[in-house]
Write a structure and sequence with these properties.
heterodimer; A: about 250 residues; alpha+beta; five-stranded mixed β-sheet; 7 strands; elongated; B: about 650 residues; alpha/beta; seven-stranded mixed β-sheet; 18 helices; about 15% strand; globular
Chain lengths: ~250, ~650
């Protein structure tokens, strides 16, 4: 019933063959040398990079490492550089590439683990603590009582910014981040903008200034806007960074 | 060997785990959360449609309260749930949602005055009350009497998880991600932590704590087609089973969601139908009203999934290279509604299928088919969330069999359970950790570490040439084909035998990469072994349960049999070398029920063998009601079923127009 994996893929439908070239390096292994490895596989209809990589891993190379969780564009785990652009691999369809040649690199600016796997969790946690990514309120909430009313449009506007999935693509697209290790990036500034708009949060502009009013915060941004160009959730990062910067500039 | 000590240890960083961590920190306890992935990547984030809580703000939720939510949940469970737990849950859910609002979850809010909605395929105008303006809105969901499912567009789990995760960071909960618990440390029936594996370095670490909580979610990935994230392998549940002591409850109770998209299996929320979307067959015909005249597309998930397969079996499915499917049509809701309230559904459909569901008519219909979605079964715990068999080991959320959902969970009750159990069980857990001293020694801890080291070395030494990926594929196919929506004795028997063979076969694999560090092949080898044990619990539980209840449907025993089967399956793995779980049963006591078993109000009529005690209890309830006379609903409820809650969670919830009544 169970055979060794097939060496030659069957292809009765005559689908095209694609070539996926992957950066290989194990940061945890002494003397390991970075290298590229190319895999050839049959492109099935609707194939995404998730499907392709799972296929490579389970049938061709069990040693390959990458990070997928939801495989539906919701969790932000699988960011990587696809033919030069940072993207969510699970939402990238292989048919987008007419020559069938795809090169995959791990997401830059994060600590590299192995192959396409990087450490985003610790960075995002630190960023969240740095910008104090939570509601600040002096009000005591009685959770048995009717909730505080919020204008529907305001709730909707906060939601739009709350859609960020901390995938790290904005950082991988950002020149400031490459120069300033501690730059909180569009992801951090968007979190500040989100709380600045939230009626539950009583922080003043001065208090936000304490958190993001420097070169690692809103004044670090050079307005190149690679973040907005690549954001998979299409968040209005340009407008929101500008909004926070105007707020912060007007204080001094 | 590395040993890390803490007061409260939580395995799993989804909603249930993180909310429990907050409860522990609020008691001043040192708290560590370990997680396989960064916590904000947990599968809670994928919950789309919403969270049930009986706020009753919207005009379509008017009259809603704990009693209505309770009745819906019990019926939904096909009387398999623990009614004490259901009461605890419905009483706390409104508080949970209000706490989350204060933590910044941007719940969709009500605008006063008229608004257009789609009900039963037709546009209608409803008028929201002035006093409800700005309060939390709710949408319709399956199996509910009122519009009760509160939401943030279709990214509800995401906004909830981020709010709770950030509150945990604010409270300095220590988060250790890329760590996987692979065994539970215990002695004399008391848990004192876990052995975890660092998924980067491969190092084994003993996390030692006064109390340990498992909150690792479901085990949907034992099925070939599942909406679950690829991390939902049930490892936390499996390591509990492997203690040989802890019981798993109702593992055969597996939910199949009606509308994952074909072929990727990515979920399209029940909110699609809640907001007025309909199911259509190959002729474009809306078939659900023929089967379920009252609830139509919004019967409970088990019923809708069965009706869909039934309809496909009549030849009404749409042919495709991936097999037959049906259509989900939300185009009737209009582009504006979809782009605002079903944003991710539109994104998923466009990205993965090239279909814009806002396009009018056939062009916008999305291909759907029932697939595995939720695990009602899990670690059997008491209402406090502590294991029935092991002290100091708690469990919350989908990993548990608390047992809120019985044989079918209602849509909107999962993230709700996750966060509510994080409050309730989290509180009991924190109390336990605050009042218990660590009682173990390094000899025991090192024994468990050593055992795991030897086990991993054993896996690396296997040399039979077989491939763990093939074994996994075969397991998932068996579960898909033989332990699915419709089940029968022959297939289940085959499944049990084949799964047992596969479990034995694991010793014949070869892991080609022999290193401990960064080795995804080794991860797969021990995970699949654990998944096979869970799969066996599911299949064997389903084989032995000769009745149909909720999501467990036997074509050879088509009736719900309260006479013989009003009981919970309990599975243990008595000896490490066993290749089959040991099953026993826990009776549900009708005499203690607030709502004795009856017809659910949807699904096939006349398919119940009622237990005589149902009527006895019904009469008794009538008598209690008569004796008490005119009393408020709280006094009445207390007389029928008395329950406890910690932390003042039992106090009354305020609602628009009715105050605290």
């Amino acid at each position: 019933m169970i055979n060794k994996s097939q060496q030659v893929e069957e292809n009765p439908e005559g689908y095209r063959e694609i070539e996926i070239t992957i950066f290989r390096y194990n940061s945890g292994k002494k003397d390991d040398k970075p290298a590229y490895q190319t895999y050839k596989l049959i492109e099935t209809p609707g194939m995404t990079l998730y499907i392709a990589l799972i296929k490579i891993w389970s049938t061709m190379d069990h040693h390959l490492s990458f990070d997928f969780v939801c495989r539906a564009g919701i969790c932000g785990s699988c960011s990587m550089v696809v033919n030069g652009k940072p993207r969510l691999a699970c939402k990238t369809r292989t048919e987008e590439f007419p020559d069938g040649k795809i090169t995959l690199l791990p997401l830059p600016t994060f600590k590299h683990i192995k192959d396409l796997s990087v450490d985003t969790g610790n960075w995002m946690n630190d960023m969240s603590i740095k910008v104090e990514s939570w509601i600040h309120s002096k009000e005591e909430t009685d959770i048995a009582a009717i909730e505080k009313p919020i204008e529907p449009d305001v709730a909707q506007a906060v939601f739009e910014l709350d859609r960020c999935i901390e995938c790290g693509i904005c950082l991988a697209s950002c020149s400031t981040k490459i120069m300033h290790e501690d730059f909180v990036g569009a992801v951090g500034l968007n979190r500040s903008a989100r709380f600045a708009m939230d009626p539950h949060d009583d922080r003043t502009d001065d208090e936000f200034y304490e958190l993001i009013g420097d070169d690692n915060g809103v004044f670090g941004c050079m307005s190149l806007m690679g973040c907005e160009d690549h954001c998979p959730k299409e968040l209005p990062l340009q407008t929101k960074i500008a909004y926070m910067r105007r707020k912060m500039v007007s204080l001094k | 060997m590395k040993i890390i000590y803490t007061d409260a240890l939580i395995v799993g960083g989804g909603l249930a785990g993180l909310r429990s961590a907050i409860a522990a920190r609020d008691k001043g306890l040192d708290t560590i959360v370990i997680s396989m992935v960064p916590v904000k990547r947990s599968h809670s984030a994928a919950a789309q449609g919403g969270m049930q809580a009986s706020l009753g703000n919207s005009i379509k939720g008017e009259g809603d309260n704990e009693d209505v939510h309770f009745a819906d949940t019990v019926k939904g469970s096909d009387w398999g749930c623990d009614q004490d737990v259901a009461r605890m849950f419905v009483t706390t859910a409104p508080k949970a949602i209000r706490e989350l609002a204060a933590w910044g979850v941007p719940w969709s809010r009500i605008g006063k005055g008229p608004r257009e909605v789609v009900i039963n395929g037709k546009k209608e105008t409803i008028v929201e009350k002035d006093e409800a303006h700005g309060l939390i809105n709710a949408r319709d969901f399956g199996g509910t009497k009122k519009w009760r499912t509160c939401y943030t567009s279709d990214a509800t789990g995401h906004t909830m998880l981020y709010a709770v995760a950030n509150e945990a960071l604010k409270r300095e909960v220590e988060i250790h991600d890329k760590k996987e618990a692979i065994s539970i440390i215990h002695e004399n029936g008391i848990c004192s932590g876990v052995v975890a594996r660092d998924l980067i370095t491969g190092e084994l670490i003993a996390y030692v704590a006064r109390g340990t909580m498992i909150a690792t979610g479901g085990y949907g990935r034992i099925y070939k087609q599942s909406t679950n994230a690829i991390i939902c392998k049930g490892i936390g549940v499996a390591i509990a089973l492997e203690t040989g002591i802890i019981e798993l409850g109702n593992m055969e109770a597996v939910q199949f969601h009606p509308t994952p998209i074909v072929p990727s299996g990515i979920l399209l929320t029940e909110g699609c139908r809640g907001d007025g979307g309909v199911l259509r067959d190959k002729d474009g015909y809306r078939f659900m009203p023929d089967y379920e005249p009252e609830k139509k597309e919004l019967a409970s998930r088990d019923v809708v999934s069965r009706r869909m397969i039934e309809h496909i079996r009549k030849g009404k499915g749409v042919k495709s290279p991936h097999g037959d499917h049906l259509w989900l049509d939300i185009s009737i809701l209009g582009r504006e509604h979809i782009e605002k309230n079903l944003h991710d559904v539109q994104d998923i459909s466009k990205t993965f299928n090239g279909i814009d569901p806002a396009d009018e008519g056939e062009k916008g219909w999305m291909p759907v088919l029932p697939m595995q979605h939720y695990s009602m079964g899990g670690i059997r715990v008491k209402p406090t969330g502590e294991s029935t068999k092991m002290k100091g080991l708690f469990c919350a959320g989908e990993a548990s069999c608390w047992d809120l959902h019985g044989f079918n969970r209602l849509g909107g009750n999962s993230v709700s359970e996750a966060v509510v159990s994080g409050m309730i069980v989290g509180e009991y857990f924190a109390e336990y950790c605050a009042t218990t001293h660590l009682n173990t020694n390094t000899f025991t801890i090192e024994k468990f570490l050593e055992e795991q080291k030897e086990y991993l070395e054993e896996i690396l030494s296997y040399d039979g040439g077989k491939n763990i990926f093939d074994i996994k594929d075969r397991m998932r196919t068996i579960m898909q084909d033989k332990v699915g929506v419709f089940r029968n004795g022959k297939d289940l028997d085959d499944a049990v035998n084949e799964l047992e063979e596969l479990l034995k076969m694991v010793k014949e694999i070869t892991v080609t990469d022999k290193s401990f560090c960064n080795n995804p092949e080794l991860n797969e080898a021990y995970r699949v072994t654990k998944m096979l044990k869970l799969a066996l619990c599911v299949a064997k539980g389903a084989l032995d349960r000769t009745e149909s209840r909720g999501a467990h449907y036997r074509e050879d025993y088509m009736k719900r049999d309260d006479e013989n089967w009003l009981k919970r399956t309990l599975a243990t793995w008595t000896n490490p070398n066993d290749t089959m779980p040991t099953l026993h049963y826990e009776e549900l006591d009708i005499n203690k029920m607030e709502m004795p078993p009856a017809f659910r109000g949807y699904g096939k009529k006349g398919a119940i063998i009622l237990n005589a005690l149902s009527e006895v209890r019904e009469t008794e309830i009538e008598q209690i009601k008569e004796t008490l006379g005119k009393v408020d609903r709280f006094t009445m409820q207390e007389a029928l079923l008395s329950f406890e809650l910690p932390n003042n969670y039992k106090r009354k919830n305020e609602r628009v127009g009715v105050g605290y009544d």
